[in-house]
Here is the input.
Amino acid sequence: MYSVTFGKLLQFTGIGLVIGFIIGMVAMLGFDLDFMAMIVSVLLSIIAAFAAAMYAELYHIRQAVNEQTDKTLKRNK
Here is the structure.
């Protein structure tokens, strides 16, 4: 059984792979570029998917900290 974190990593890798593959195919067929364009687009898409996931996780952590701080300040008054 996979952990939740490993499952999320596989999920975001898959999302980046599919999006990068689509962008790479468009670059290869539409703009007549070589296979290196597909490799670069896949890698950049995976990195962008991970960056978006990290931003979302940090945002949720910040929201939880703000809620906890608000509860603590209200309790201390």
Notes: The helical segments are 4-30, 35-76. The mean pLDDT is 87.
